[in-house]
Design goal:
Blueprint (H helix, E strand, L loop, with lengths): L2 H26 L16 E3 L5 H6 L4 E7 L4 H16 L7 E7 L6 H6 L7 E5 L10 E2 L12 H15 L25 E7 L8 H8 L7 E7 H4 L5 E5 L5 E5 L4 H11 L26 H5 L6 H15 L5 E2 L1 H17 L4 H15 L5 E2 H11 L25 H20 L7 H15 L3 H11 L2 H4 L3 H19 L43 H11 L23 H6 L21 E9 L6 E9 L10 E3 L13 E4 L6 E2 L2 E3 L6 E3 L5 E2 L2 E2 L1 E19 L6 E19 L8
Parallel strand pairs: 1-3, 2-3, 6-7, 13-22
Antiparallel strand pairs: 2-4, 4-5, 6-8, 8-9, 10-11, 12-13, 14-15, 15-18, 16-17, 17-21, 19-20, 21-22
Length: 734
Amino acid sequence: MAPERKWIWCLAALFTLGLHAGELAASEDPQPDWKQSLFSASDPIAQLWPNNFTSTVHKSHQLWFVMFYVAWCGHCRRAAPIYSLFSQQIRDWSPVVKLGAVTCSDLANQKLCRSYGVEGYPTFKLFPPNSDPSFKGTPATAGRNDDVTHNLRDVLLQFINQLVLSGNTDPSWPPLNYVNSARELQTRDSNFTFIVVEDTKLSDRNIGLAVMLDLLSARPKVIVGRMTIQRARVSSPGLYVYTKGRLLFPVTSLLSEEAMVTSINRYSALTPQVSSTVGDYVTTIAPVTPARNLDDLIRPKGLHMKDLESSLYRSLWMEVAAHSSISGDQLSALKKYVYLLAQYHPSEEHVKNFLTKLNDWLQSTSDPMAVSIWSQKLDEFQSRNAFIPENETYTGCAGSSPQFRGYTCSLWMTFHALTVSAYQAHSSDPRFHPLTILNIIADYIKYFFGCRECADHFAQMARTMPDEVSSVRDLVLWLWRAHNRVNLRLHGDVATEDPYAPKIQFPPQIACPSCVDERLGKDPFSIPDDAWQLDHVMDYLTRYYSKRSVIDDHDESTQNIQSDASSPSLQHSQRSVSCVLVSTDWTTCSRSCDVGVSTRMINSESDCRLQIETRLCMLRPCTIQFTDWTRSPWHIDNCPKVAHTYRLIKPQALSYGNCTTVDSRLWRVCGRCPRTRQGRTICCRPARSTTSLMDVVCTTRAAVDSRVMVTATQLLVEDIEYCECNDNCFDYQP
């Protein structure tokens, strides 16, 4: 082959390799996750990504108002429908203003959000027309204590006015500046010319600008301008029409944008323009039909390894990496937090190894630290035996849709697990300072948690820590109380509460009957402080958040964890011989008379997944006298312990809440024992019982038309064989 042809083939090969390399590099970039968007295609809000941000925003003739948000942030979810409504209201401003949104919780946008200096959410930024690609945007502010979300219109009008007065508008914009004479506005095609006369000494200085923008779609038939009261030479501000005699004729003196737009529409006999409502914005979210059974909704799902690992991934790879550099108190907080994770995180060996390597490097890092170095080290430390899965897969913290639960749920789980792990390691160490752990958690939230409103609320709660935490036990209980306070505050918030996982007080009575005094804590969504039995709560928390209770759900067979999987019928039918069955004893019935509930922890034989079973129970009826019972004939001759066991004379169905068993039975029940025996309290309780599935019907009444709906299901029910008297009454309610 001739030398020239060889060169041609080599160049062609290199060019082809370059193309494939470029395609390969492009394919490695994270792809947009549309499921995380809080906006729909019908909203006049542009979805912005790294590949269209510069061409859409910086090379635009309009100014851009951009919302940076994360899908898991409650404040962002409340702001999204407001932002969406606002975009509809200012649709006619489109020759001047465009609205956009960036989903920073999407890995594809991580570098974009960091490059624009976004560290808290939601963040609103303004970009003037034809801005330089290096311009990072003007942060939208609404005063010292005001929320931008509820002042979108005022913030935007103020920015537009600054651009107009400074002459930094685009030539394509209509004239929006003050005029010296109404004749400057008249055109050959205009039928009406209106002037908004402003008194610049009044607080609302942008009312004329707002009216002009509201009626841009009516140009050129209707022209609206604005003048100062000094130039107009009239006695009072208001709306005026420029008549043929070149005089200003008053239309309305109401200094209201809505009143002026309405007056112009009526005066000019135009059809009403796009809505000019300037009142309060209302957060509206399409309702989601909740599950049928409240017990299924509030049953705890356990501590899952995938949730804990997903929390680490978002925390380290995205929350910390959202900052351009980390220094001072922020770097100190990060070092302490990573140390806390390395010491107490209830993770598997590969995660522990990674956290140990990260901690060893970070403690010797100098101040300041560039985030690019941080991200580089995260990737560098990933190895076969030391790694954190680089994805988010939530199981116990999975929501009914992507914007619910997820990261925030898993972060709470992580914090609880850290406090319990520290408690178990230092419960007998008098030198241990429990406040240290909580201060580290509080500082992480202060400096790195993206939802700024959430961080502010946590900081307010943290002010009580010095007064409420004096022992290592208080370490666990303070965070538990804080979490319940957040649930109480957010319960019923349609923007943040998953209808399939309502924000209850934890632990619910169905999971831990002995944790709550049923006489005081009947409402699962609001349980007073004095209703909690703290010794039982502490025992439950240290078991629930213990490393031994973590569910390893990496096996594909354990990924389908839904609320229905907690139902008793599935718990019984899905077991196989692949795992040794292990369970705790059933707890004492939650009520000393009539129908209550008892629970136990049990693993699934098919996948060893730890779960909670709940059954109905009845120690004795409250209203039936002993004379209405009959001694149980079974075991009386063989076992003297059954002397306190009775059987009901008439068959009875069991009712609990709005559910009743289909069948009635002659239930065995327990009698009563002497109050004390040699100074000790004696209680009568079941000594042997069986558990079986029974058909039940549940009724609910519709709130709108009061129709009664009936559903059928199955529940576990305790069937007492015989009772005995003993002094094992630590969780017994006489």
